[in-house]
Amino acid sequence: MTAQGIFDPAALGTCISCGFCLPTCPTYQLTGDEAAWPRGRIALMRAIDDGEVDVFDAAAREQGSFCLGCRACEPVCPAGVPYGKLIEQLRVAQWTGRRRPWRIIPLMWFAGSRRLIRMVGRIRRHARTTAASPEHSGDMLMLGCFERALFPAVSRAAVATVPGLTVPRDQGCCGALHAHNGDLARGEELARRLAERPGRIVSTAGGCAAHLAAVVGREKVVDYSEALIERASLPGPILIDGRPARIGLQDSCHLRNGMGVTAAPRTVLAALGDYVEVPGAGECCGAAGTYAILRPTESRQVLAEKITTLTALDLDFLVVVNPGCQRQLISAVRRAHLRTRVVHLAELVAMAENGTVRP
Question: What is the mean pLDDT of residues 34-51?
Fold first, then answer.
């Protein structure tokens, strides 16, 4: 396929090839390969758009899947290149029909089925406080597709700690999974459908929040930590053996790089104990949506240095704000036999309020 029109020309033309993104790119850090960082990939995209390189060329397909899509390049870019949008557009062209990676097909099918999502959610007992109603007002808690299946306690904790949240039971997927995996149109459609309800959307999943904000506007979407600070008093410190708990944070890449949310989670954690800034907290953990499923070897390579850091810090809690990060880090911490507990921010706040933390 050599036809033009795959990429937004304004976005593609924004890059000035300055190189500021180089030190932020995790795949460049792994390989040292000039092709494996945003400037190199944008040069490839331009060649595809000009018809010089086939979009299904082996090297092009490799870079389309090798990128984590973490968007760490965006905050440091002086030209404001919307790189996340460009990598999504590349995957729309490459991951179509039979060319879509087979490992993500069941995930997209699950996320696209509102009935199946609701059934799994009922079985797993996610938060349920409000019947389906188009008239409800105030902030709505978004139930992430995979969060409600894998970590249903997160939504229950969010409802318990932020007063006044409504939880419509008929809500579907936000579309982030689709947008990041080659079906951008469907991803945007699902986001708009979710945002048709009145009030703001409160998200406990950083990747979902950033996708929603990009489609329907930042004013419509808030992270759980922001809503908590607005609407609730923060609980006192968690004590373990008479001392404040040592607590660190792993940022969600999209929440940090796509929405600029970094201070609010740290403000909450500073109230909960002895907050320890984890070196590299803003760098990707390797989960990156479906990346850990599609490229498990590279995912673990990205994660390796983080686990070395966590071993040295000896934290009581490592807090996450995204279910993909939670799944990735729980598994990694267990493999490393660390005593650190990986929990979502909402879960830790709920534990602090209920006094359920044990040494």
Answer: 93
Domains and CATH numbers, the chain: 9-91 (1.10.1060.10), 103-230 (no CATH), 233-354 (3.40.50)
Is pTM beyond 0.85 here? yes
SS (H, E, C) the chain: CCCCCCCCHHHHCCCCCCCCCHHHCHHHHHHCCCCCCHHHHHHHHHHHHCCCCCCCCHHHHHHHHHCCCCCCCCCCCCCCCCHHHHHHHHHHHHCCHHHCCHHHHHHHHHHCCHHHHHHHHHHHCCCCCECCCCCCCCCEECCCHHHHHHCHHHHHHHHHHCCCCECECCCCCCCHHHHHCCCHHHHHHHHHHHCCCCCCEEECCHHHHHHHHHHHCHHHEEEHHHHHHHHCCCCCCCEECCEECEEEEECCHHHHHHHCCCHHHHHHHHHHCEECCCCCCCCCCCCCCCHHHHCHHHHHHHHHHHHHHHHHHCCCEEEECCHHHHHHHHHHHHHCCCCCEEEEHHHHHHHHHHCCCCC
Q: Indicate whether 1 pLDDT > 50.
A: no
Average pLDDT in the 187-204 region?
A: 93
